[in-house]
Specification:
- The chain is built from ten helices and ten strands.
- α3 packs parallel to α4, α3 crosses α10 and α8 crosses α9.
- β1 and β2 form a beta hairpin.
- It has one domain: NAD(P)-binding Rossmann-like Domain (Rossmann fold, 3-Layer(aba) Sandwich).
- Strands 1-2-5-4-3-6-7-8-9-10 form a ten-stranded mixed β-sheet, with helices on both faces.
- With 293 residues, the protein is an alpha/beta fold.
- The chain starts with a strand and ends with a strand.
Length: 293
């Protein structure tokens, strides 16, 4: 159903189908069947919002639905272009020009009709951010890198929320992905990025922004090629294989946090910002950085 330009897909829940479709999760959710089922219930009852339906965010809605989370929100004001087809869920010739969040929600609800999905096709704005995070337990910040004003609005709403436990972000640059975790006590996004909210996105500010979002610059291709795309054209080039790497890590880290498994055995917690995690598929490098100047 629709309200004020938004679409809301209600859950069509069938317990027998739900238990069958998530049963393979249980082998990794506990030491006993009862413990595993209890952790699956935590996933089932969580409310997760995904800001951004691009190469990572759109597919995260699908992955979270497959995981068994039954209450999702998605926001994006952007529409599909031909250049999105190489990596984004829902992108295809027939969907060019359609709102990304609406297409993703339509696809995911058809796949898993037991998942309730609220769509914010206006994206994240100073007017919509508070409503977007309201009632959520976790938020994924997958807003486009250059849209720092929308990101500021989202993070302000998160810090004002009493329900959201933390936010998590994943970006890909070349063959590597960076993950950040945001809490109310971690470095605020405004300080992390360091640009005034009303700053113009010119080459100088783009260079500053990208310098904050890429704490370790990939060694290939060379600086001139990277600058051409990231600074001069203010566009992030992405190959089809990079977003799934980030999506998988984000899904796992969120699952581990919701279920409490991140505190078990030899698990390692994701650092809070300005610390980060980095995985590079080209150099076979993975690291946790607890802090960053």
């Amino acid at each position: 159903m629709s309200s004020e330009g938004r679409t809301y897909y209600q859950s069509e829940y069938d317990d027998k189908i739900y238990r069958e479709r998530v049963k393979r999760n249980l082998g990794w959710l506990g030491d006993t069947e009862e413990e595993a089922r209890q952790r699956q219930e935590k996933l089932k009852n969580s409310v997760v919002a995904v800001a951004g339906a691009g190469g990572i965010g759109g597919s995260m809605v699908e992955r979270l639905a497959r995981l068994g989370i039954l209450n999702l929100k998605i926001a994006d004001m952007d529409t599909f272009e031909y250049s999105n087809i190489n990596r984004q869920l829902g992108a295809g010739v027939k969907n060019v020009g359609r709102n990304k969040a609406e297409v993703v929600a339509e696809y995911v609800h058809e796949m898993t009709p037991d998942v309730a999905i609220e769509v914010f096709p206006e994206g994240i704005t100073s007017d919509s951010a508070a409503e977007f995070v309201r009632g959520c337990d976790y938020v994924l910040d997958e807003i486009e890198p250059y849209e720092f004003k929308a990101r500021y609005a989202l993070h302000r709403a998160f810090r004002a929320s009493e329900s959201v436990q933390f936010m998590i972000t994943g970006y890909v640059f070349g063959n590597r992905t960076f993950l950040w975790k945001w809490t109310r006590d971690s470095m605020p996004i405004e300080e992390f990025i360091g640009l005034p909210e009303h700053a113009e996105m010119n080459a100088e500010n783009a260079e500053h922004l990208i310098g904050r979002l890429i704490p370790e610059v990939p060694g290939y291709p060379g600086n001139a090629m990277q600058r051409k795309w990231l600074i001069d054209e203010q566009t992030c080039p992405i190959t089809p294989g990079a977003p799934p790497m980030s999506q998988g890590l984000l899904t796992e880290r969120l699952m581990l946090a919701i279920t409490g498994i991140e505190d078990q055995a030899d698990s390692a917690r994701l650092p809070v910002s300005p610390g980060y995690a980095m995985v590079d598929s080209r150099t076979w490098t993975a690291k946790l950085v607890e802090d960053r100047p």
